[in-house]
Amino acid sequence: MTSDNSIINSITLDQALRTIPSGLYVVDTEMRIVYWNPAAEMVTGFSAEEAVGQHCSFLHGIPCGNSCGLYNDAIPKPIIGGRCTIVTKSGKTVQLLKNIEYLRNADGEVIGGIESFIDITRQHALEGSLREQATTLEARVKERTTELEKSEIRFRTVLDNMDDMAYIATEEYILTFMNRSMLEVFGNRVGNYCYEVLHNESAVCSWCPMDKVFSNRTVRDERQLGNPGRIYEVIHSPLPEEDGVKKKLAVCRDITERKKTELDLREANRELDAFAHSISHDLRGILAPVVTYMDILRMTYSEVFDEQILQIFGEVEHQSERAIALLDNLLDLAQVSHVKPGDHPTDVNMIVDEVVRELSLENDNYPEITSEKLPHVWLPETLVYQIFSNLLRNACHYAPLESGVIEVGCWHEKNGVTYFVRDHGPGVPSQEQEKIFDIFYRGKTSKGKRGTGVGLAIVRKIALRCQGLAWVEQTPGGGATFCISLPKAPAFNKPAAETS
After folding, report:
1. I need a labelling partner for 40 at 20 to 30 A (CA). Which of 118, 129, 194, 449 fits?
2. Partners of 127 in the beta sheet?
3. d(CA 208, CA 196)
4. What is the full DSSP assignment across 103-167?
5. Distances (CA, A) of 274 to 278, 279, 284, 463, 493
6. Per residue in 199-254, pLDDT tens?
């Protein structure tokens, strides 16, 4: 400790003043400089020889040049963190941050003053740049805020002029906006809970889509709102957050009349299917004996009738068989709407194998059929059979033996599976691809081919019944690829949603 004290005591005042990094000078009561340290020389460019003896105003300081802060009684001492501007020896203007204090003798009389300072020119410039940026940013924020306010006004004006009801609710289920159409039905209930206003519930609805909406999903559902018996399609969408508050927009379209029309259409479809089923069944019962009688006549009286009569018998039998095949297909088409959803998934591979066996027994001149491992589907076996029976028969019918292998496969999608039957035959012209699934439509490549034009219509009707799609694509290198997408989970549309 004694050694440390001796080191401290050995430091002279001059040594301390010369080694501090701040510029420092001392003045007498006449403001004449009596001491000037090396750091002051570095900041100002003036040496001690040039500075000592001069009045401190030689630095051309502002505001010091206007009034001295040291000997101004109105300014309390010490002055800490004062700022001024001086001109250096090289003529450069620099900004200083300084501290000022009186120097007193043992009796407390003021005998001079001391000032220490550092160069903050770069810092001052940065501060100025930051202030400028802050001013620019503030102006941009104000401009952007104004634009957002205008956009919100336009947005709400659009909503107010809609015939559909619309409202905005927060993640806390509070209504913050109701458009004109909604006010007419519910009155002004802004600030209330949406479940109380819309559904007369005392707690959040069990089916509330808010979580899905705030996962950036658009949700559609159908609900009764307002007047009893009025049904609305409600589209819930997320809105951009404001001040961290999540909001959703719901647009409600009155679909009461549409639902009534769907119900009427569903009933009409049921009646039409029943009529088609009845007519097809009855006509088949009439035509089947005709085929039998024609066959008996040809076999029994082949030696009695001449060749022309036998040809007529054969043509009658042929046309009757075509009519029976058409009626069978119409029966299948009518029955699609009456098949109930399956209570377990169907093994598609088993159905495909069954159809392939049937085709091989019917004709050994069909192309080879290969199938990859196919996933099960939530569809009754009868409908799965109809799909692959029609698609594979269609492919075998139009693809010649030498065209190559017929492929059965699939690809997986997020919520479903798309099955395909791919051939390398003549293909389907692009202008016919939309119409090829229409009932009774037969394209140019069907000339000279037997068929009823109903098989692909059955495939599309099954797809629509299951909320799927059916379409045809060109096979790379030539041919047709018929596709049908089906949901992974059980999904059956009501008959009203089906069109042929």
Report:
1. 129
2. none
3. 13
4. EE-TTS-EEEEEEEEEE-HHHHHHHHHHHHHHHHHHHHHHHHHHHHHHHHHHHHHHHHT-SSEEE
5. 6, 9, 15, 20, 18
6. 888 999 888 988 888 888 888 888 888 767 688 899 999 988 777 788 889 998 88
Q: Which fold has domain 162-254?
A: Beta-Lactamase (3.30.450)
Q: Does domain 2-119 sit in CATH 3.90.1150.10? A: no
Place of tokens 């336009």: 154
> What does the pLDDT look like over 399-410, one tens digit per residue?
877 788 899 999
Dihedral Cα 192, 194, 195, 197, nearest 10 deg: 60
How far from chain centre, in Å, is Cα 186?
32
Tokens of 399: 């693809």
**DSSP tag of 56:** G
What are the boundaries of each domain within the chain?
2-119, 162-254, 257-338, 342-500
Instruction: Tell me how far apart the alpha carbons of residues 496 and 500 are, in angstroms, rounded to a whole number.
Output: 11
| Topology at the third CATH level for domain 257-338 | Helix Hairpins (1.10.287)
**The 175-178 sheet, strands edge to edge:** 175-178, 165-170, 245-254, 231-242, 219-224
Are 472 and 463 a contacting pair, CB within 8 Å?
Answer: no
CA pair distance 472, 390, nearest whole angstrom: 14
Radius of gyration of the chain from Cα atoms? 47
What pairing do the DSSP bridges indicate for beta strands 231-242 and 219-224? antiparallel
Q: Furthest-apart CA pair in the chain: how many Å? A: 161
Distance between CA 108 and CA 138 in Å, rounded?
A: 52
Question: CATH for 342-500?
Answer: 3.30.565.10
Q: State how far the Cα of 122 lies from the Cα of 152, in Å rounded to an integer.
A: 44
pTM surpassing 0.70? no
d(CA 339, CA 498): 13
Q: Which two structure tokens, joined as six digits, stand for 443?
A: 């394209």
Rounded to whole angstroms, the Cα distance separating 467 from 483 reads 14
Structural contact between residues 190 and 175, judged by C-beta atoms closer than 8 angstroms: yes
Q: Specify the DSSP element, H or E, that contains 329.
A: helix 307-335
H-helix or E-strand containing 459?
A: helix 455-465
pLDDT for 71 beyond 60: yes
The CA distance from 265 to 279, in Å, is 21
For residue 286, what are its two tokens?
Answer: 């009439």
